[in-house]
C-alpha cells in the first residue's frame, strides 16, 4: 500500500467530513466495519443547521417542528409551524457523506487502525484481514468515536475529563403519534442521568430510546411498559430494530498531540444537554481539515491551532452546558416535574423559546429560563442539595 499524507482512523460522518475538507495530500480513511453507516448508534435527529454543516446529505425521512417535553406528570409543547430539525435514515446519510469523501479520499474497510509512537511522532498500524500494514503519515486523525483508543493512547482522554453514557434504542412500527413533534421525557424513573425519547420517522415508524449509565435495555422496557404517554403511542407497535451504543460527555483541554488530532466523539465534541454530536462534529471536522491543509502546505509548523479554533467556535457552549448538566443531575424528579409544570403556564416564555430557541446552542436559552424562575428555582435547588 502506498504511503499517505493523512490517515483518518474512523469512517463515520465526522471522519469523512474531515477528509473531505483536506485540500491537499493523499488521505486514507480506515474504517473497522465492512460497511459505512452500520451499526446504527444514533437517534438520527439533526437540526437544520446541523444538516447544513453535514452538506445536506440524503436520507431525510421526516421533518419536525418542535418537541413535547414530558416530566413525571406534566407536558409542555415547544414549537410552531417552522421546521426545526430533520430525522435521518442514518445508513443512507452516512453512505452519502462517505461517497462525497470518496471523491477525495481512499477507504480501507474492515480494517482496524491504531497509533504507535516512534522518534518522528506517531505512525499507524493497520490490521486488515489478517495482514499488518504500517504507514507513516504526516498527520493522523482520531475519529474513532467515544471509545477512542487513539485518544487514550495519547493520554488526552481519561475518566476525569469525560463521562461515558450507554444508549439503547428500538425502531418500532405501527406507532400512533404526532409526526411533527419529538417526545422528550425528563423523568428519572427511566433515565437518571439523561432522558428518554420517542422520535417520529413518519409512516407510523418511531425510534424509542434512552441514554443513561448502564442497564439501558431494562430501563427502556420499563419506560415502554409503564409510562402512560409511551403506552398510548406504542400500544400496537412492534420492534423491528435494536441498536446500542455509547456517548461521551465532557470537555478536552487538549485534542492535539504531536502529529495527531482528535475529532467528533473522540474529542468530546458532543452537546452535553442533548447528546447530539453531529453539529459540533461537522464544524470541528471542517476546522480540522483546514488546519491539516495549512500544515501540509507548510503555512504552520504544528497542529495546535486546531484546539484554539474549535474552542473559539463552540468550546464555551460545551463548558456552559456541562455546568447546567451538573445542576440537572442534582435535581430531584419532583423538582423537574414542577419546572415543566410552571413552564407550561408561561406562554410568553414559550413564545420566546419558539422565537429564539436554538437546538445547537442550548445553554444560553436554558440560562434564560432559569433566570425567569430564579427565586423559586433557587429555593427548590437548595432543598434538593441539602
Write the SSE topology:
Layout: E1 6-9, H1 13-20, E2 27-30, E3 45-47, H2 48-53, E4 60-64, E5 66-70, E6 75-79, E7 85-88, H3 90-102, E8 106-108, E9 111-118, E10 121-128, E11 131-135, E12 139-142, H4 149-154, E13 162-173, E14 181-185, E15 196-202, E16 205-212, H5 216-226, H6 228-233, E17 238-250, E18 256-257, E19 260-262, H7 278-297, H8 305-330, H9 333-345, H10 347-356, H11 362-372, H12 374-385
Parallel strand pairs: 1-2, 1-12, 2-8, 5-14, 12-19
Antiparallel strand pairs: 3-7, 4-7, 5-6, 9-10, 10-11, 13-16, 13-17, 14-15, 15-16, 18-19
Helix pairs in contact: 1-3, 1-7, 7-8, 8-11
Organism: Methanocaldococcus fervens (strain DSM 4213 / JCM 15782 / AG86) (Methanococcus fervens)
Pfam families: FAD_binding_3
Domain FAD-binding: 115-298
Can you tell me about this structure?
Helix 1 runs parallel beside helix 3, helix 1 packs parallel to helix 7 and helix 8 runs parallel beside helix 11. The model has no long low-confidence stretch (mean pLDDT 93). The chain is of the alpha/beta class and 386 residues long. The chain is 37% helix and 28% strand. The protein is globular and about 60 Å long. The protein has three domains: 181 residues, FAD/NAD(P)-binding domain; 103 residues, 2-Layer Sandwich (D-Amino Acid Oxidase, Chain A, domain 2); 57 residues, no CATH class. A hairpin with a 2-residue loop joins strand 18 and strand 19. It is built from twelve helices and 19 strands. A seven-stranded mixed beta sheet has the order 6-5-14-15-16-13-17, with helices on both faces. The chain has a six-stranded mixed beta sheet with strand order 8-2-1-12-19-18. It comes from Methanocaldococcus fervens (strain DSM 4213 / JCM 15782 / AG86). InterPro entries: FAD-bd (IPR002938), FAD/NAD-bd_sf (IPR036188), Geranylgeranyl_Rdtase_fam (IPR011777), Geranylgeranyl_reductase (IPR050407). This is Geranylgeranyl reductase. GO terms for molecular function: FAD binding; oxidoreductase activity, acting on the CH-CH group of donors, NAD or NADP as acceptor.
Amino acid at each position: 500500500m502506498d504511503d499517505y499524507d493523512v490517515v483518518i482512523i474512523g469512517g463515520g460522518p465526522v471522519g469523512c467530513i474531515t477528509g473531505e475538507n483536506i485540500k491537499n495530500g493523499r488521505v486514507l480513511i480506515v474504517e473497522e466495519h465492512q460497511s459505512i453507516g452500520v451499526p446504527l448508534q444514533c437517534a438520527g435527529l439533526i437540526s437544520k443547521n446541523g444538516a447544513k454543516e453535514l452538506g445536506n446529505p440524503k436520507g431525510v425521512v421526516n421533518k419536525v417542528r418542535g418537541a413535547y417535553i414530558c416530566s413525571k406528570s406534566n407536558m409542555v409543547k415547544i414549537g410552531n409551524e417552522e421546521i426545526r430539525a430533520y430525522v435521518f435514515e442514518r445508513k443512507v446519510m452516512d453512505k452519502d457523506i462517505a461517497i462525497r469523501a470518496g471523491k477525495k479520499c481512499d477507504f480501507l474497510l474492515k480494517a482496524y487502525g491504531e497509533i504507535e509512537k516512534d522518534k518522528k511522532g506517531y505512525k499507524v498500524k493497520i490490521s486488515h484481514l489478517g495482514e499488518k500494514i504500517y504507514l507513516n503519515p504526516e498527520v493522523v486523525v482520531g475519529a474513532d468515536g467515544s471509545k477512542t483508543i487513539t485518544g487514550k493512547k495519547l493520554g488526552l482522554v481519561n475518566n476525569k475529563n469525560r463521562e461515558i453514557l450507554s444508549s439503547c434504542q428500538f425502531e418500532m412500527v405501527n406507532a400512533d403519534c404526532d409526526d411533527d413533534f419529538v417526545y422528550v421525557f425528563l423523568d428519572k424513573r427511566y433515565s437518571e442521568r439523561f432522558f428518554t425519547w420517542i422520535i417520529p420517522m413518519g409512516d407510523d415508524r418511531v425510534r424509542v430510546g434512552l441514554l443513561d449509565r448502564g442497564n439501558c435495555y431494562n430501563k427502556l422496557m420499563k419506560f415502554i411498559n409503564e409510562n402512560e404517554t409511551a403506552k398510548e403511542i406504542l400500544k400496537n407497535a412492534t420492534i423491528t430494530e435494536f441498536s446500542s451504543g455509547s456517548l461521551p460527555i465532557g470537555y478536552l483541554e487538549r485534542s492535539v498531540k504531536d502529529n495527531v488530532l482528535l475529532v467528533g466523539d473522540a474529542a468530546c465534541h458532543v452537546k452535553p444537554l442533548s447528546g447530539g454530536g453531529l453539529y459540533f462534529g461537522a464544524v470541528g471536522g471542517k476546522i480540522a481539515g483546514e488546519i491539516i491543509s495549512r500544515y501540509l502546505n507548510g503555512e504552520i509548523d504544528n497542529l495546535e491551532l486546531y484546539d484554539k479554533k474549535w474552542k473559539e467556535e463552540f468550546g464555551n457552549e460545551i463548558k456552559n452546558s456541562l455546568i447546567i448538566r451538573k445542576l440537572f443531575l442534582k435535581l430531584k424528579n419532583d423538582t423537574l416535574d414542577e419546572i415543566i409544570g410552571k413552564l407550561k403556564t408561561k406562554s410568553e416564555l414559550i413564545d420566546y423559546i419558539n422565537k429564539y430557541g436554538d437546538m445547537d446552542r442550548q445553554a444560553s436559552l436554558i440560562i434564560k429560563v432559569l433566570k425567569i424562575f430564579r427565586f423559586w428555582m433557587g429555593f427548590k435547588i437548595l432543598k434538593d442539595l441539602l
